[in-house]
Amino acid sequence: MDQNSYRRRSSPIRTTTGGSKSVNFSELLQMKYLSSGTMKLTRTFTTCLIVFSVLVAFSMIFHQHPSDSNRIMGFAEARVLDAGVFPNVTNINSDKLLGGLLASGFDEDSCLSRYQSVHYRKPSPYKPSSYLISKLRNYEKLHKRCGPGTESYKKALKQLDQEHIDGDGECKYVVWISFSGLGNRILSLASVFLYALLTDRVLLVDRGKDMDDLFCEPFLGMSWLLPLDFPMTDQFDGLNQESSRCYGYMVKNQVIDTEGTLSHLYLHLVHDYGDHDKMFFCEGDQTFIGKVPWLIVKTDNYFVPSLWLIPGFDDELNKLFPQKATVFHHLGRYLFHPTNQVWGLVTRYYEAYLSHADEKIGIQVRVFDEDPGPFQHVMDQISSCTQKEKLLPEVDTLVERSRHVNTPKHKAVLVTSLSAGYAENLKSMYWEYPTSTGEIIGVHQPSQEGYQQTEKKMHNGKALAEMYLLSLTDNLVTSAWSTFGYVAQGLGGLKPWILYRPENRTTPDPSCGRAMSMEPCFHSPPFYDCKAKTGIDTGTLVPHVRHCEDISWGLKLV
Ligand SMILES: Nc1nc2c(ncn2[C@@H]2O[C@H](COP(=O)(O)OP(=O)(O)O)[C@@H](O)[C@H]2O)c(=O)[nH]1
Ligand SMILES: [Mg+2]
């Protein structure tokens, strides 16, 4: 990460005096005080300065320094706050464990978001089933028994050295490789966790560049991070469809030996995977894969919908999620707690720009075009969608007709986009013209990163904060095909209005449509009938797995 360029951009507000000398914000404050002229004020100020310096010195001596990684991230942590100062707190005894989804007993200060999120959200209408809750508590016990550092883990590691294993080990593992954009990572990790739940495996997370900077530990008492000395980590980047232990490769080349049990397998479930890799979704193949103690998975997909089509899993899934379209909503809220640094980004922004509005509208603008834009056809699409769907009011271009409303409703619009243009445009429109309803519209965009910079920590921190902020809105507009938007809608429990993907740089008609459910779309599902061994449309087999609104060949739970 280019820390210098970040610091340059985020340095305190600067102004210039006398032509060339620049002073920062704190200098400006001092100058104001002095220019008021009275000696009394000067003395008061000097006293304050001395007291302040002493306090700073004390705090430097007695206070813990932020960790090095925090300093590298370059932004401040969230503060520990009393319940009394949270925005929109109506009930301070609110359900901080989210209906039993979260375990109690975590240290609150080390991960503020875990138990504070409830203060920023409306209560979810979707309750986790008691079966899911007990499954999670049992999973946590398994994770603690088998996790890194335990005797079972050490025993299992020894198996990795062998081609085949002898006998059944106590614990089995699935290792998730950090891969792809942040939205994809969140969705694929949730999918792999669900697979771990269904197959009694322990999930271990390759931290990649920044997983540990972005997310808190979700399991009480034992880390989910793959230890840094895991013997295969340096092979992760090179694993692909041609790897000798790739399951699809082995099926294709008929080198599966059903006599002995392999110590590990690589599962290639990336969007470019082939028909043989897709055999993962067949029950018979699951029986074979199920015995292997170490599974290493690379995927950028939300493959949950296809798990529901595996006969051996669907009973359990029905018990876990009687409300079928709540899988990511619950698992996402269970797993993904932003670290204090990211939580600081979320809460400071929320409190500064969103908490006081009567209604919060999220608009997530993701344009998949070589050219970064902004584009007029996308701008037209946003205003057409938000006005037709009555999410935002029209403006009255006859300024003098300005409506006066005694207590106007205040809507805060949160725009997220790599480009600044769309929010700027909306902001100008609602400043230059009155709304036809008299409503007051504030438009806010936290960042304008320009382009995707997946390798940079701060960039990903902001991306996560923005997904999270979008999930705190009352109504959400997302962009077709975007996993960034899927994460926001799922965490928020929101059925978004989807801005359909424009073709030939033309505003689509209709510009948007309401999603059937809040679930993410599986972008590259298999179309195969494992029993009949023939192709089949997997989007028409059961009523709860359908084709997506934004990708005709995708699958989603409804
Ligand atoms: N901060 C920020 N980053 C974004 C935004 N849109 C895209 N990005 C970046 O681009 C990446 C896109 O990958 P992904 O999260 O998978 O979203 P998708 O490409 O829309 O599916 C994100 O993870 C961010 O790094 C945005 O609105 N805000
Ligand atoms: Mg993506």
UniProtKB/TrEMBL annotation:
Keywords: Cell wall biogenesis/degradation, Glycoprotein, Glycosyltransferase, Golgi apparatus, Membrane, Signal-anchor, Transferase, Transmembrane, Transmembrane helix. The chain crosses the membrane at residues 41-62. One of its GO terms (biological process) is cell wall biogenesis. It comes from the Eukaryota. Pfam families: XG_FTase. GO terms for cellular component: Golgi cisterna membrane. It is found in: Golgi apparatus, Golgi stack membrane. The keyword Transmembrane helix applies. It is a single-pass type II membrane protein. Its EC number is 2.4.1.-. The keyword Cell wall biogenesis/degradation applies. GO terms for molecular function: galactoside 2-alpha-L-fucosyltransferase activity. It is an enzyme of class 2 (transferase). Belongs to the glycosyltransferase 37 family. This is Fucosyltransferase.
